[in-house]
Amino acid sequence: MLHHQKIYVDGSWTRSYGGETIDVVNPTTEEVIGSVPQGTAEDVDAAVGAARRAFPGWAGTSPARRAAYLNRVGERLREDSLELAELITRDVGTPLAFSHAAQIPLPILTFHQAARIAVEFPYERRAGSSLIVREPFGVVAAITPWNYPLHQIAAKVAYALAAGNTVVLKPSEVAPLGAWELAAIFDDIGLPPGVFNMVSGTGPVVGEALAAHPGVDVLSFTGSTEVGKRIGRLAAATVKRVALELGGKSPSVLLPDADPDQAVPHAVTSAFLNNGQTCCALTRLVVPRSRLAEAERVAEQAAAAVTVGDPMSFDTGLGPLASRAQRDRVRRHLVQAQKEGARFVTGGTEPPDGLSRGYFVRPTILSDVTPWMAVHHQEVFGPVLAIESYDTVAEAVQLANDTDYGLAAAVWSEHRDRALTVARQIRAGQIEINGAGLNPTAPFGGYKQSGNGREHGVFGLEEFLEVKSLQTKPWQL
Ligand code: NAD
Prior knowledge:
By secondary structure, this protein is α/β, with parallel strands linked by helices. The chain has 16 helices and 20 strands. The protein has helices spanning 41-59, 63-79, 81-92, 96-103, 105-120, 149-162, 177-188, 203-212, 225-236, 260-276, 292-304, 324-339, 374-377, 393-401, 416-425, 457-462; strands at residues 2-3, 6-9, 12-15, 21-26, 31-37, 124-127, 130-136, 139-143, 166-170, 196-198, 218-222, 241-245, 250-254, 282-288, 343-346, 364-367, 384-390, 408-412, 430-433, 465-471. The chain has a 7-stranded mixed beta sheet. Strands 10-9-8-11-12 form a 5-stranded parallel beta sheet, with helices on both faces. The protein has a 3-stranded mixed beta sheet with strand order 1-5-4, with helices on one face. β9, α7 (177-188) and β10 form a beta-alpha-beta unit. α3 crosses α4 (96-103), α5 runs parallel beside α6 and α8 (203-212) packs parallel to α9. The relative contact order is 0.13. The protein binds nicotinamide-adenine-dinucleotide. Residues 143-147, 152, 170, 172-173, 202-204, 207-208, 211, 222-224, 227, 230-231, 245-248, 279, 379, 381, 407, 446, 451 line the site of nicotinamide-adenine-dinucleotide.
């Protein structure tokens, strides 16, 4: 049992003003495995105050010194990676092999990468008679989701600190345990008090207090589009900088010359990644109508090859969804899709055989999906792939773009240039061609209602840097 009694404020583990706790549930067993404090607005005041006091000192340290702290965090995460991978699997339900392959390596990479970029970044440049200076904003509030709990935290905290800001983190209450390990590492390595603070709690209380707080300069949020809109409105009252990383409904487009045997299994793997709970998952497969039957057959085979079960087993490819609420939401989406005329190629609304305990959902492939159905537009966030078909390439592009989201996409073709031409027409922040993998140094973020920020790499650092221009007389340059 991991009962965390304290939050982390001003370099110390302190009691929350509230005294209530939130249970943490293992989604595989449905058992309580720990708890965290249910923070309050007073806790947020204390954390923001500490971060404000710490800001001038931290902003005044050299990038090299800040990088040394971040590299130390990366090393400590690596040392603890076996235990951390198991912790994330118990907290989120991610298959253990994937926790080892992504849930922990990605944050390690992020801390080291932020450190390197902080040192290499040109903070000053000239523009005519002006000196353009990039400076940290001040206090960054980071509000994060549960699906890649440590990775989403790292993308914000590592880059915000690298740029010289101080931070108040509110981790997701659904999967908070990894955040405690990270806070303990910051404490162990002797980060100056107040530079990193963590207040756990619910979104409506702790999250909204941060969004509205006049002492917060930047609000960096990753989560659902619905909550992103709400906190954007709250933050507007104090004209904070707001960076939103939101949901997606990303298409994988097979051009007529693409090979379904390569493209379709890739789409299935992407849709089922992290138990179908990945923001940039390719959850719509857009295929030529003449190849629909072939695509369905390959997708069905790929889904049948996935082992569903205990995520602590290395053979498991699909574990439970992260919470009862998430499992119920996915089932409701499936019921509605069926009502609206989508056809189950495989899967369904019943739990997988032999898995009545745990928040499991069958790996599901839907076909005959059209833009009139909710499942074409709405993020399901479960192991569900929707197949749609087209007659012309123009129609394929239209289908790909026909949602409010624009986070990611994929294009498949025998001819790279044909794929690139279509990729340029798709309104999304990152597009993979012929199965090329994620590049963690490339900017990550959304078009349209998938958000307005960019994380990782140089863009991820710039997100946390304000711009100042110093005008001088030309002869004094
Ligand atoms: P969520 O929006 O429910 O919660 C995200 C965070 O916001 C949590 O910490 C939550 O406590 C907090 N929150 C909830 N209500 C709030 C409120 N009223 N005010 C302030 N904070 C509030 O999202 P989730 O269910 O945790 O995560 C899943 C969503 O996150 C999906 O939509 C997914 O696509 C998205 N996501 C996006 C990215 C990206 O980079 N674009 C990455 C991961 C997840």
